[in-house]
Amino acid sequence: MTEKNYRILVINPGSTSTKVGLFEGETCVFSKNVSHDAQRLAQIGDVSSQLPYRRDMIMGILDENGVDLSTIDAFVGRGGGLLSLEGGVYSVDETLLNDARRGANGVQHPAQLGSQLAHELAASCGKPAFVVNPPDTDELCDDARMTGIRGVYRNVHLHALNLKETAIRHAKTMGRRYEDCDFIVCHIGGGISISAHQHGRMIDGYDIVGGEGPMTPTRAGAVPVVAVLDYLKDHDSAETRRLCQRSGGFADLLGTSDALEVCRRAEEGDEAAARAWSAMEYQIVKYIGSMATVLHGDVDGILLGGGMVHNQGLVAYVRDSCGWIAPVTAYPGEFELEAMAAGAIRALSGEEEVKRYSGKPVFSGFACFE
């Protein structure tokens, strides 16, 4: 156990909201999710230009709760906009900030504001700022990177923060270290991540931003390439990209991305809703099975996190389909704020070494195919 109850402020920017939480040790003192007007954000401009607006909102929350920044031991922001990197706790420095500001990974997402906001607040009182297991975490094994096209390689964009925190917490319930376990870990929400964790490394998973993995409420999931080429004859590439990233899946098939509504419609006899829900469940277990083979069947547990895991029918379906592989444990919701605070505490207490962001991707190709 850590001797000191470190005070950690965590910041998690989303598309139309910002979550802020204050932790003392593992205890959440308070958390608040502030909604932003989408039109106002659009008027401000690109993601990084939203920094002053969101910073002022955060300062208002802290003032309301009587929080003195000088009493905070560390600030943690949701990582984003970075080149691929190993998982872990990273100090926020100029190299990391420069890539976050411009969105070096080519994906403009509010998460890239997390490190910038944490840095601004931390710098004002001379405290450290961190990011923990950013979305660009890439620990794929070499075999997982290959495709059959020269110069085209696989990478991953997953809910790495929640996936790793779920695995860390579950390992503790077993009296073991995450680094000594092998898990299949899933985040099942608006996006769905399915990953294989071997001895503390996420050795395989899917690029859910790039169109891999199962169908989700907002993403099309994996689609045959030739079918996509045919689709592009009548649709532009921007529309097709949106289907992969935010307007596919339930949103395209049913006109809503609300999983609760889709489930309700399916239960009330809506044939289209029932077909889409069933297909999503089927694809989830199919991808879980593929991760079991990557781990050679040596699986200590199948862990389910994310908002849709509140649905007992979905959890039962996964247990019925995959329970023969390993015990299935549900962790409904997400641990993102808790995960960021826990990472900072591990760093401050010396339990985990703080890493420095190199600004270079962890993988840039195999020399034998160059």
UniProtKB/TrEMBL annotation:
Keywords: ATP-binding, Cytoplasm, Kinase, Nucleotide-binding, Transferase. One of its GO terms (molecular function) is butyrate kinase activity. Its EC number is 2.7.2.7. It catalyses: butanoate + ATP = butanoyl phosphate + ADP. SUPFAM superfamilies: Actin-like ATPase domain. It is found in: Cytoplasm. Its main location: cytoplasm. Belongs to the acetokinase family. This is Probable butyrate kinase.
